[in-house]
Amino acid sequence: MSHLWSAATHGLVPYVPGEQPRQPGLVKLNTNESPYGPSPKALAAIAAATGDGLRLYPDPDSTALRAAIARHHRIDADQVFVGNGSDEVLAHAFQGLLKHELPLLFPDITYSFYPVYCGLYGIEYQLVPLDESLSVRIEDYRRPCGAIILANPNAPTGIALPLSEIEALVADHPDQPVVVDEAYVDFGAQSAVSLVSRHPNLLVVHTLSKSRALAGLRVGYAVGDAALIEALVRVKNSFNSYPLDRLAEAGAAASIADEDWFESTRARIVRSRDRLTAGLERLGFSVLPSSANFVLARHPHRDGAALQAALRAAGVLVRHFKAARIADYLRITVGTDEECGLLLERLETILAANG
Ligand SMILES: *Cc1c(COP(=O)(O)O)cnc(C)c1O
Questions:
Q1: Per-position b or e across 292-313, b if 16+ CB within 10 A of its CB
Q2: Sign of CA dihedral 62, 66, 86, 118
Q3: Ligand 1 pocket list (CB less than 6 A)
Q4: Ligand 1 center to residue 111 CA distance, Å?
């Protein structure tokens, strides 16, 4: 019945998320979720918010959550915007800040949702190739543009730029919005949140889905100058006044306040990443240096898609991207040591069987 669609819908090329299997028992290392549960304090806050109060609409401004985020980052609440997952925050940023006459710049290999938003909102963009080591080179962004978006650490490479380079990029473009998507920053990169008070053109986007183990709650946020935040609020209030429900707001605020849980789980994931990297290298893989909760790894003699399929048949889900320069690689989420051990065991069997 596609003749019933609007013309714009025919032209959309939607994002395809990693598989969420219905079949139980698979080892799930394909969508960068945390192997550890959310903060018990977050779960208690969600339970406490479950009751008769759900009759009422939530706070459209998510005041309590924005205050908790502002306290955590030592900034003002008017420098904070919250949304239904950072994907929604990013969508509003694309529409409200990144659409200009000159093209938006982002790397040729990065979060594959960015070109999807460009398609949705009719944003001109130019891809800037990563260098031979698959790193962002900020000098390559010194060209006329309307805005810039980078993921730092980048996805799916896991490679991070130091804060000094992010600051140089932001300073190079004082009249263009620069969005830094820090979905994975807590696993080993330096956050640019410390720069927002000095740079009114910088917007930093965070998610509670990865380092705070709340992918199922759908909460993300942006930090930036109050004028950038106001643009996002205008878009949000023209789209959905209540993107965060009462349970999400309560759980997210309690999660942000629970520093101990956050610190201990992210430290475990970083240690497991180092063991996983060493294990993959022992099997002959080359592994990009990751500052994230995943690694991008390539075997010199094996096809990435074939390895992914063999792993799936052996009960382990990992992600593979068909994009030109990374088609040989697997993106593997850091699970528990037990899950990573199982992955390595299955990979060893697969490599031995068709060696
Ligand atoms: C996971 C991810 C997001 C989206 O996170 P949600 O908050 O779950 O929507 C955004 N950017 C990057 C680079 C990601 O990997």
A1: bbbbbbbbeebebeebbebbbe
A2: positive
A3: 32, 85-87, 111, 151, 155, 181, 183, 207, 209, 215, 220
A4: 8
Q: Which atom of ligand 1 is nearest to the CA of 215?
A: 8
From the CA of 353, how far away is ligand 1's center (Å)? 36
Q: What is the pLDDT of residues 276-326, one digit of tens each?
A: 999 999 999 999 999 999 999 999 999 999 999 999 999 999 999 998 899
**In a mutational test of the pocket of ligand 1, which residue from 210, 293, 321 has the highest number of ligand atoms less than 8 Å from its CB?**
210
pLDDT at position 355 over 70: no
> What CATH number is given for 40-257 in this structure?
3.40.640.10
How much distance in Å is there from the Cα of 296 to the middle of ligand 1? Answer: 17
Residues 6+ apart with CB under 8 A from 118: 94, 104, 124, 125
Distance 151 CA to ligand 1 centre (A): 10
| Averaged confidence pLDDT in the chain | 97
Average pLDDT rounded to a whole number, residues 50-75: 98
| Residue 147: Cβ within 10 Å count | 25
Tell me which of 159, 187, 209 to substitute to probe ligand 1's pocket, judged by most ligand atoms within 8 Å of the beta carbon. 209
Lookup: tokens for 307: 């390895």
CB of 70 within 8 A of CB of 211? no
* CATH classification number, 18-37+260-353, choose in 3.90.1150.10, 3.30.360.10, 3.40.50.720, 2.60.120.10: 3.90.1150.10
**CA distance readout (Å), 243 to 7, 57, 62:** 27, 11, 9
Domain ranges within the chain, ordered by starting residue: 18-37+260-353, 40-257
Closest residue by CA, ligand 1 atom 11:
183
Each residue of 110-169: pLDDT tens digit?
A: 999 999 999 999 999 999 999 999 999 999 999 999 999 999 999 999 999 999 999 999
